[in-house]
Amino acid sequence: MPINMKMPGPDHPITIGPASGRVTVRAGGAVIASSDRALALREANYPPVLYIPREDVAMDRLRRTDQYTHCPYKGDCAYFSVASAGPQGENAAWSYESPYPAVAAIRGHLAFYPDRVDAIETS
């Protein structure tokens, strides 16, 4: 167990479950993700975050950036920009590529910042 890994619990709950309906992400004037297999991660008092399987994301429209962050509950996080979205799309998506065991379900998924894409729609 990594020395700085924290486990979700009553003081900092994290739950992951299927998102309801189809999730579509638009950026740079195009659909860059659309999935009916998205996951909703609910963490503490934060708004739910939708994680979309990579297979349902137009990965050819994203480019990995040099930005990395670390979450003590989820692990190391890599970032991606939506090239066609210009400055707004910088570091618009993120992924925990080797998430900690408590959140292993989000492996192979990406999430998007709502203010760095044109829209995140659910239907």
Could you walk me through the main structural features you see in this protein, from its secondary elements to its overall organization?
There is one protein chain. By secondary structure, this protein is mainly beta. It has strands at 14-18, 23-27, 30-35, 39-43, 49-53, 62-71, 75-82, 93-95, 109-112, 119-122. The chain starts with 13 loop residues before the first strand and ends with a strand. The model has no long low-confidence stretch (mean pLDDT 96).
Which key phrases capture this entry?
mainly beta; single chain; 123 residues; three-stranded antiparallel β-sheet; globular; 10 strands; seven-stranded antiparallel β-sheet
Distance between the termini: 39 Å
Structural class: mainly beta
- Apparent shape: globular
* Topology pattern, helix = H, strand = E: EEEEEEEEEE
Major β-sheet annotation? 7 strands, antiparallel
**Count of alpha/pi helices:** 0
- The number of E-state strands comes to 10
Average predicted local confidence, pLDDT? 96
The share of residues in extended strands comes to 35-45%
Whole-number radius of gyration?
14 Å
Physical arrangement of strands within the biggest beta sheet: 1-4-5-9-8-7-6
Secondary-structure topology with pairs:
Blueprint: E1 14-18, E2 23-27, E3 30-35, E4 39-43, E5 49-53, E6 62-71, E7 75-82, E8 93-95, E9 109-112, E10 119-122
Antiparallel strand pairs: 1-4, 2-3, 2-10, 4-5, 5-9, 6-7, 7-8, 8-9
Can you give me a brief rundown of this structure?
With 123 residues, the protein is an all-beta fold. The protein has strands at 14-18, 23-27, 30-35, 39-43, 49-53, 62-71, 75-82, 93-95, 109-112, 119-122.
